């Protein structure tokens, strides 16, 4: 019997950000990450990754990336706080629905949101009809609905979420959620970047792949324990980075996937 899992790492466009955003130590100016009064040479482009997991019981999409609406006029589509620190860029064929259509995938069992920041949730309204359930942690939904920060409530006004409560004890805070109740796809509570951020631990045949969600920008984040410019809680972010560093050093770790790592190219992992 073929019990393999397939993880597609997909890029749904880019964010153009100030280089102080992913790693706070690279600028002495505490507001550099906003890009205000900063030279254009400080701009970098980072990919916006989303992940499609093919599990024998159904497909799981982790995050949604930019919607097609940013292609025409992102300033019309988003309020200022949606693009001030991170400008959306989406090329032809790069939205998640266009990529799912190309892969011939018409149905998702679950959409999982690692957190509800604009670059992770923007295409939700376009892709939600593909999915049976839309999973977001109760903590994240509560904090996103309270508004503030980089949450844009208009993006989910027509969405019915399936908020979940933790049913397992994995991760740095002993809070996890086993999606198919078979131990293979586990959502891990990783607070710090946002109040209810979630990572995804995918286990099969004695090996694993880990998706960091907002907890880490790139490999440097956990290898050097580098905090980004925007954190909801410093201590919790650091604790999560230490957990990810520990996972990265395990013999059975295939890959750790950070959402905005320029070193991570689109590829497929089968294990
Ligand atoms: Zn985020």
Model description:
The protein is an alpha/beta fold. It has a single domain (6-264), classed as Metallo-beta-lactamase, Chain A (4-Layer Sandwich), CATH 3.60.15. Helix content is 20%, strand content 29%. It has seven helices and 13 strands. It has helices spanning 69-77, 96-103, 118-121, 124-127, 138-145, 219-223, 234-248, and strands at 6-18, 43-55, 58-62, 86-89, 108-112, 131-137, 162-164, 176-178, 185-189, 198-204, 207-211, 253-257, 267-270. The longest helix is centred in the last third of the chain and has 15 residues, at 234-248. It starts with 5 loop residues before the first strand and ends with a strand. The structure holds zinc ion (ZN). The site of zinc ion has 4 residues, from loops.
How would you sum up this structure in a few lines?
The protein has helices spanning 69-77, 96-103, 118-121, 124-127, 138-145, 219-223, 234-248, and strands spanning 6-18, 43-55, 58-62, 86-89, 108-112, 131-137, 162-164, 176-178, 185-189, 198-204, 207-211, 253-257, 267-270.
